[in-house]
Design a protein that fits this description.
Strand content: 15-25%
Shape: globular
Distance between the termini: 87 Å
Number of strands: 27
Helix content: 40-55%
Number of helices: 31
Radius of gyration: 31 Å
Length: 839
């Protein structure tokens, strides 16, 4: 019997290699014949062939048809439907920014005037890398390996098939060693190509029909499939030809072994790798300790090479025309992945620019890290725990390093994914133990198995549902799969002996579910006690509040549970009846909807009334814009991805809890989400910042030009957390400077601008070791720079008031002498504040 399912491609980048390999992985589980058709073109393909899927050129918005026939066709279609609706939208590469047109590189004045050679390209991975230029060539087959003239086609094909088997085994070993992450995703895509029936058939056909050797047949298959991708007209699919090249090269190495020359790159120092193109496999083979940057003459913004470089934090620029690798070989070069340029012929001024850049980033990093080692606390003294959302013990270690106060959400279902069978109790215990140990005494909230909905497992025979998110999932399936659930509970209870492990039940909608789970936990604890197994008998048990009904059952739930954690992702979509994955509903699914804020306020208030701790572990916690609202709501803890922990703590330090509560009181009485957004953007809940502070003062600055002096002042704003867009601030300053010189005279300059690129009105003071030419009114060199940056939206005439005050005071010699002689940043700040107050 035949079954089918229609869908519209949700992927912004279309059905390229990674999503194609993920779909192929699902289809391959079934014996049924499964096909995929692009209804825009009418072309069908075998859904178990990643190359066939990619060749369909399925673009965003294309109508598609999946059809299956055979004994398990119904289950295949159902599994593919769930995959397409819940997983496929997230299996995509980050959409890269469009490449700049020629001449669009905005060089900062310091670098523009540095006298170095700046070659523009397209920035694809941010950061700055410095090293010696090292050329990376494209591997080629030696002439000694024949391409044609096979005498025994069957023997040649048998040898190729065996080599393919070894290659697949090697991919499996690499995947086992790497676990999850971008590198694993790329390897899975390569494995999908290697086991693609179309790939092996194309090679066999070339051997039989054209009597080609393995070398010739593999080369022809690579050319055939690369041409097929090029014919789609998609730049992204054309870049996936690099993956095919990688698989072909790996296969040839399995066939010919040591007959192929080594591709190992020998490093002797930090290096910038320069190449025409580079495959993902080549990058994976490089010693990451020495690779400080990548420069490609050709290449797009979405190749797997780019994705891998981004995951490793390697600055990368592509499309660099006119850079001769042979000429710069061995020279020290800079890859600037922020500006999208490669800098050669480095001058003293260019080195000074990048020293300034390094100092700028180091100051910001040091500022943020200062908060990571301490509890997050508002400026009026309210402490808030910052936890981390994790999926493995390795993530826990990363969270601890980042300064997390604990783990607010350990997604235990990640241990159950990508397996033919569920993990045993001992396997789970080993993972939970590693996580608890890595937490170093911090609390870990482990969510029990959240399966169903968007996370179907093949070894569970879950029924077909029209809407899985409102169906049989999470705690609702535990009774049917009681053995599996009890196994997890035993592993968690055993791990509780090692640290502060807490258990959280997902998808709770009624008290009966909690009562049954508590009985299971008590039963398993009794059995372990009888067996003499150690555990924490007081292990806290809580629930996720993600179903609206639970929000109205907090009193009875508080009697049965120790804590609550709000899962805003599901709670929002259930409360507003908005599928969070439906782009048409994105404007409606706004967490700042007043009715939703009233619900959150009710949850926190009732939890407080019953003496229960309440945290939040949804995406809302990781959005800086929402922090004032969450602080005002009064959550005990906010859980965010590990890399965001330090920045979240730093942001909270700038908030007033009292002002945030006042904001929430206004917000829950608002009429629309837009009204709330305007309230949030007013920034009245942030700690009022003084116009200047010691962090914004630098004395004895070694600036040699006006450009360096202005950059130094703007960099102080960035280091103090007053702007995340320093280049925009600098450009705004220079636009004013183009109209007239801000050299006031008497050795002072007051560069200034109005721009919302600063988060607060700010004044930076830079005292120079040596005077610099500024074009001042009196012709004197400038020794003191006072930069004023005022928000464009400021309505208090701060800009003109402060400028006028400074101008008046600088006319007095006594004030100028005080500023010139004072070398203490704090004293200079007091002096500036006194003058402002007197004005």
């Amino acid at each position: 019997m035949a079954f089918d399912y229609r869908f519209t491609c949700p992927l912004p980048n279309g059905m390229h290699a990674r999503p194609a390999s993920a779909l192929e992985h699902v289809a391959r589980r079934f014996a049924a014949d499964v096909s995929l058709t692009n209804e825009r073109t009418g072309r069908p393909a075998n859904a178990k062939s990643v190359l066939g899927i990619v060749s369909l050129d399925i673009r965003h918005g294309d109508a598609c048809l999946i059809a299956a026939s055979g004994r398990d066709a119904a289950w295949a279609i159902e599994s593919l439907r769930v995959f397409v609706e819940r997983t496929l939208p997230h299996v995509d590469d980050v959409v890269a920014a469009p490449p700049p047109r020629a001449g669009e590189v905005r060089l900062p004045p310091v670098l523009r005037n540095a006298g170095a050679t700046v070659t523009p390209g397209v920035a694809v991975v941010t950061g700055v890398g410095v090293g010696r230029a090292l050329a990376i060539g494209r591997p080629s087959l030696p002439e000694s390996i024949a391409r044609t003239g096979v005498a025994d086609a069957d023997a040649e094909i048998t040898g190729i098939d065996r080599a393919l088997g070894r290659l697949l085994g090697r991919y499996d070993e690499l995947l086992d060693a790497r676990g999850e992450g971008v590198e694993a995703d790329v390897l899975r895509a390569h494995r999908s190509v290697a086991r693609d029936p179309e790939f092996s058939r194309a090679i066999a056909r070339a051997v039989r029909e054209r009597r080609l050797t393995a070398a010739g047949a593999v080369a022809e298959a690579e050319a055939e499939f690369s041409s097929m991708l090029a014919a789609t007209g998609s730049a992204l699919l054309l870049e996936r030809a690099l993956d095919i090249r990688d698989v072909c090269r790996a296969l040839l190495r399995e066939v010919y072994g040591e007959a192929l020359p080594s591709e190992e790159v020998v490093f002797t120092a930090d290096s910038i790798c320069v190449a025409d193109t580079m495959t993902p496999g080549q990058l994976l083979g490089l010693n990451r300790r020495f690779v400080k940057g990548l420069v490609l003459a050709h290449g797009g913004t979405t190749s797997h090479t780019v994705i891998l470089a981004r995951s490793r934090g390697i600055p990368m620029v592509v499309g660099v025309a006119g850079l001769d690798a042979a000429v710069i070989l061995g020279q020290t070069v800079v890859v600037d992945g922020d500006l999208g340029v490669v800098v050669t012929g480095l001058t003293d001024a260019a080195w000074r620019y990048y020293d300034m850049e390094r100092s700028r980033l180091d100051r910001r990093r040091a500022r943020v890290q200062r908060f990571s080692a301490h509890p997050a606390m508002t400026e009026d003294g309210r402490s808030i725990e910052i936890g981390a959302n994790v999926g493995s013990a390795a993530d826990v270690a990363e969270a601890v390093t980042a300064g997390a106060d604990g783990v607010g959400l350990f997604r235990t279902e990640m241990l159950f994914l990508a397996r033919k069978n569920p993990p045993s109790e001992d396997e789970q215990f080993a993972q939970y133990s590693r996580a608890v140990t890595a937490a170093e005494g911090r609390p870990i909230i482990a969510r029990t198995l959240d399966v169903g909905g968007d996370k179907p497992f093949p070894y569970l025979s879950l029924p077909k549902e029209a809407n899985p998110f409102l169906g049989y999932r999470a705690v609702r399936i535990y009774r049917e799969f009681e053995g599996l659930f009890r196994s997890q509970i035993r592993a968690l209870v055993r791990a509780s002996a090692l640290g502060r492990l807490q258990v959280m039940i997902p998808m709770v909608s009624c008290l009966d579910e909690v009562t049954w789970v508590r009985e299971v936990i008590a039963d398993e604890q009794a059995r372990l006690a009888a067996a003499g197994v150690a555990f924490n008998p007081a292990m806290p048990v809580g629930a996720m509040i993600e179903v609206p009904s639970a929000a109205f059952l907090l009193e009875p739930l508080a009697g049965a549970l120790d804590f609550f954690s709000v899962g805003t992702n599901d709670l929002l979509q259930y409360f507003l009846a908005c599928d969070r994955d439906n782009p048409r509903l994105t404007p409606l699914a706004n967490p700042l909807e007043p009715s939703f804020l009233r619900l959150l306020d009710r949850i926190v208030s009732e939890a407080r009334a019953h003496g229960r701790w309440v945290g939040l572990c949804g995406d809302m916690a990781g959005r800086a814009r929402f922090l004032p609202v969450l602080v005002g709501l009064g959550f005990d803890e906010l859980s965010v991805p590990p890399p965001e922990v330090p920045a979240t703590k730093a942001l909270i330090s700038g908030l007033s809890a009292a002002a945030c509560r006042a904001l929430v009181e206004r917000a829950i009485g608002a009429r629309t989400a837009r009204d709330v957004e305007q309230m949030v953007d007013e920034r009245g809940h942030w700690r009022p910042l003084p116009l200047t502070e010691p962090e914004l003062v630098r004395v004895r600055a070694d600036c040699r030009t006006k450009e360096e002096a202005i950059k130094t002042a703007v960099d102080l704003l960035y280091g103090a957390g007053r702007t995340d867009r320093p280049r925009d601030v600098e450009e705004a300053v220079w636009r004013r400077e183009a109209d007239y010189s801000t050299g006031f005279g008497h050795g002072f300059a007051i560069p200034h601008c109005k721009t919302d690129a600063v988060d607060a009105n700010s004044m930076a003071v830079v005292k120079l070791q040596h005077g610099v030419e500024w074009g001042a009114l009196d012709g004197d060199a400038v020794r003191t720079v006072v930069l004023l940056a005022v928000r464009e939206s400021d309505t208090a005439a701060t800009h003109m008031r402060v400028l006028a005050s400074l101008a008046r005071r600088m006319m007095h010699e006594e004030f100028r002498v005080q500023v010139e002689q004072e070398q203490d940043p704090a004293a200079l700040c007091r002096l500036m504040h006194e003058e402002q107050e007197q004005s």
